[in-house]
Structures are given as structure tokens and as C-alpha cells.
């Protein structure tokens, strides 16, 4: 974990390997560096894309990695995939998390829900056994997600988890906060019609709060509808700072410390 966290921001959830960045990733990186983003956590949708993530981290040492299977890819799940994810995580010291995993009952075929649960349960266990963070995707599935996570903790011990791109209700937020989860907010918190998300942000202690872009998705206001990129995490942060009545500098320091704690980010040379 960082002994001293540098001033600036941590974007705790990006997808830089997507085609949206194929033509100008060096320029995107220059903008995030100019914006003071000193760490990024690159999430993983399927294990097959992991070499792409590694290639990006080879170019940009401030990028750290996760490996896992997204719930909307649950049809790919096979029992041997757990061993594959565990091996990839153990083989690269830049891996700081398992995921993104979790449950998504909004877009998924009902027939896939059991596969989602199998994949989620297995990935929780990998995070526990390797002492890695767990990046949780949860959409219209808060009750089932909380139940599975609680059961896993009761049976096998604690897990460092983050509810990524959180858009749940205040009551749901309180449940995950009580479980010890970090809660990460994206550009959604800047949207005019997202008062529920802003209300939920008020339920998160500063010590459990994180920020992210989830780029290339969910660009914050005033960039909504355009490609999102890490430099825009400042917009998320400033909205949250205003909401919480703290300075952006205080939010930067606290969320960077939180990210360092959750992901155990090393000091860069």
C-alpha cells in the first residue's frame, strides 16, 4: 500500500482496451496525466482480453489491472475458468483485483442468472484466497448480491470489495457500506436526472468513497453522449465535493487514500 499518496486523482475503473481508444490512446494518456490522475485500475470483462490490458500497462506504468468475467458474459463461464482467472491473477504483480464480476438482472437473460451466480461465487473465492480486491458490478440485483457476498464473508472471511459505478438506492447503499464495501461513483452522479444516485452518495462515509469514469462509457456532464476518458474523472470528483461540502483537494486526498487501501497500490518508481 502507498506510504504517501501523491496529490491528484485515482480513476478506479477504466476500459482503455476498447476500440474507442484505438486511434489516440497516447493523447488520452497525456490528458489524464495533465489532469493529475496518478493511478488507474483497468477492469476486465473476460479473461481473453487480459493480454490487451497487460499491453496497456506495459506502456503506462500508472495502470494497474484486474482479471475476471463480467456478469453479462456469464454464458462463457465454465468450471475451469476459475483456475484460469486465478492463474492470471497470480502471474502478474500488477493485478490488484478480481473482476469485474457480480450480478446484472437488468439486461441479462433469466436463463443466465444461475451462471452469473456461479461465476460470482467463484470469483469472490479467488479474491479471498489471493487477498485481492473484488470489483463488483451490480444492477437491479442488490439483494442477491448482498446475500452472496455476506454468505461468502461468513464462510471464508473478509473480502476487500468495491461496488463499482454505483446507482443503487440509499437503503441499498447503507447495506453495502455496513458490509464494509467501498462505493464508487461514476459520471452518472453528474446527470440532472440522477438525484437518487446523489442521495446515495450522501450515505457513504468519506473513508469508503471512490471515484471512477468507467470509460469509454457514461461521460459526465457536460460531455454526456460523447466518449468518456480518464481525464473526466475530475468532473465526477468536483460534483461529489460540492455535494459533500468539502474541497476538491480534500476529496482527492481521501479517495486516493481509499483506492490505495482497497487495491494496495504500490509506489511507482
Automatic annotation (TrEMBL):
Matching PANTHER family: D-AMINOACYL-TRNA DEACYLASE
Cofactors that this protein relies on: a divalent metal cation
NCBIfam families: YchF/TatD family DNA exonuclease
The protein's role, per its UniProt record: Catalyzes the hydrolysis of D-tyrosyl-tRNA(Tyr).
This enzyme's EC code(s): 3.1.1.96
Keyword Transcription in annotation: no
Catalytic activities: D-tyrosyl-tRNA(Tyr) + H2O = D-tyrosine + tRNA(Tyr); a D-aminoacyl-tRNA + H2O = a tRNA + a D-alpha-amino acid + H(+)
Stretches that traverse the bilayer: none
Name assigned to this protein: D-aminoacyl-tRNA deacylase
CDD domains membership: TatD_DNAse
Cofactor binding note: Binds 2 divalent metal cations per subunit.
Sequence similarity: Belongs to the metallo-dependent hydrolases superfamily. TatD-type hydrolase family. DTD3 subfamily.
Keyword field: Hydrolase, Metal-binding
Gene3D superfamilies for the chain: Metal-dependent hydrolases
Superkingdom of the organism of origin: Bacteria
Binding site for a divalent metal cation 1: 13, 15, 100, 214
GO molecular function: hydrolase activity
Binding residues for a divalent metal cation 2: 100, 137, 164
InterPro entries given in the database record: Deacylase_DTD3, DNase_TatD-rel_CS, Metal_Hydrolase, TatD-like, TatD/YcfH-like
Origin species: Thermostichus vulcanus str. 'Rupite'
One Pfam family per UniProt: TatD_DNase
